Amino acid sequence: MHPENEKYIELSAADFPRKCAEYSRRHFLRTMFAADERELDGYFRVYAVFSPMGEDRFDILTMKLREDALAYGSITPLVPAAHWYEREMRDMFGIIPEGHPDPRPLCLHGIYGDVYPLRRDVTTDDIKKSVDFSREDGYFFMRVKGEGVYEIPVGPVHAGIIEPGHFRFSAVGETIYHLDPRLFFTHKGTEKLFESRGFENGVELAERISGVSSFSHSSAYCMAVERMAGMDISPRAKAVRTLVIELERLYNHIGDIGNMCAGTGFALGYAKGAILKESLMALNARLTGSRYLRGINVIGGVTRDVFDAADDVISTLDGVKTGFKHFMEFLLDSISHIERLEGTGLLSREIALKMGATGPAARASGISDDIRRAHPHLSYGSLIFEAHTYQKGDVYSRMMVRREEAECSFSIIDSLIERRHEGELRMPAGKFPAGGSALGYTEGPRGSVFYWIKASGDGSPLRVKVRSASFCNWPLVSYAIHGNIVPDFPLVNKSFNLSYSGCDL
Q1: DSSP category for residue 468
Q2: 63 is a domain residue
Q3: Distance CA 493, CA 267 (A)
Q4: Cis? peptide before 181, omega within 30° of 0
Q5: Claim to verify: residue 228 and residue 110 sit in the same structural domain
Q6: How many domains does the chain have?
């Protein structure tokens, strides 16, 4: 049995690319992944999760592949949003998307030998033994040829306290013609770790995938396990999760707007944003014991009732709300700052749709997609709010979407506090069905977060697939930076505010 809004459609390898192309015309590709299910029926499987625009339904196209025939026709030429997913499956499972336009490895750099880490019969010792630091990498960057074209390598080690990522710019003078990013320098084997931790202990792993999206990740993971087990948590637990997700969105959005000021050299704006963000993170610590909102979610509910501290939430948010209003007025009156944002880092609606953009990056390019509305969950189905969109797709639009969404979060939290929420904070988890599977999802600060989990024959984790918003949005930066000048890259990059850790799974 699957959750009511999940429909699995079995296809042959020959029909899979054509059907995916048909679905992509009217549906969003939410995630795509493989699973080693040989212990269940002898096959590997590939899943492509689509959801129709405006409907709370997931159509999950799947095909099975034998171990001695792991090639199929790549869907990337027909569904560009699949490009990283297919490269990831090739690296982690050895499943070959024939005809994929980019044959380079994605997750596994050249130090790894002939090993496919997410196959069930591959151990962590096998992976460690395959590593050889003297091995030639063999990776090549895309080159732009022509008179006056030169390359600027940036990273992978950076001056700030951030994780490694390499950016290879091809430029003429100050104008960027192409950006080829390379990530996954610190691939951690997180999805492999899920298999050995058990479903209940997996919560701690989920909330450590991406620091500033800890609660979004743990909520999506818990939702997937609960849906698989047929559990319906109480209205009170749902309300707690909803409120805390909105607190996470608030401190991220306000902090991101301040960080954009750092991209234009506007130190006072950056400081004002940091002060407001710190007020919210201090509130997080008082409410939950964690500035990053960890330790709250558990399978079956939550560990703390944040409504017990409603007075603290109200008084803190009243102060932040007033400060944020003045902060935005200050920024919008700063002409030199706004001129740097307008028309910079343009991402067209067409490219955003084709490449599977999510979150503020998508909505700033005119795509009205918000998982809270498209697939109502937790308390969102009973709340009234909008998915705010802008049309230009520039840095200014991404800032303004965050402003509108921050205002919306204030309103959602007020509505939740005004209502009564009944029920226990936590229900016992019980047993997990053998071979069961389900999706979990939520709208995090950077965009949608998806988990797909499947149980083995004994009810333990067989596969936990994580799809962060950053995994969808990193490729968009190359399109947004084209035609801009080199000094605008930090600004454009901060307007997306993407996570390295959220991809290095």
Answers
A1: -
A2: yes
A3: 17
A4: no
A5: no
A6: 2
pLDDT tens for residues 455-490?
998 889 999 999 999 999 999 999 999 999 999 999
In the sheet that holds 437-443, the strands lie side by side as 437-443, 448-455, 461-467
Q: Which domain holds residue 204?
A: 190-496
Q: What does the alpha-carbon distance between residue 404 and residue 462 come to, in Å, rounded to a whole number?
A: 40
Can you tell me the distance from the alpha carbon of 67 to that of 38, in angstroms, rounded to the nearest whole number? 9
316 lies in the same domain as 445: yes
Q: 255 pairs with which residues across the strands?
A: none
431 Rama sector, left if φ>0, alpha if ψ -120 to 50, beta otherwise: beta
Confidence category of residue 188, pLDDT binned at 50, 70, 90: confident
Q: Which residue, 374, 376, 380, 378, is CA-closest to 362?
A: 374
Backbone φ and ψ for 134, nearest 5 degrees, come out as: -90, -5
**pTM for the full model?**
0.95
Return the structure tokens found at 321.
């709300």
Q: Can you point out the beta strands (E) in 199-250?
A: none
**266/381 same-domain check:** yes
* Tokens standing for residue 5: 């809004």
Same domain, 196 and 114: no
Q: C-alpha angle with apex 57: 56 to 62, nearest 5 degrees? A: 160
| Three-state SS sequence of 437-450 | EEEEEEECCCCEEE
Is 217:465 a contact under the CB 8 Å cutoff? no
- Cα–chain-centroid distance for residue 64? 26
Asked, for residue 367, whether it belongs to a domain, the answer is: yes
User: Which 3 state secondary structure label does DSSP give 84?
Assistant: helix
Q: Please write the tens of the pLDDT for every residue from 225-255.
A: 999 999 999 999 999 999 999 999 999 999 9
CATH number of 47's domain: 3.30.460.80
**What residues have CB less than 8 Å from 117, skipping those under 6 apart?**
92, 108, 127, 189, 192
Strands 448-455 and 27-37: unpaired
Euclidean distance between CA atoms 172 and 348, whole angstroms: 23
Cα dist from 310 to 22, 59, 305, 375, whole Å = 48, 40, 10, 28
8's tokens: 């699995």
Domain termination residue (choose one: 132, 149, 165): 132
**CATH no. for residue 305?**
1.10.645.10
DSSP symbol at 251: H
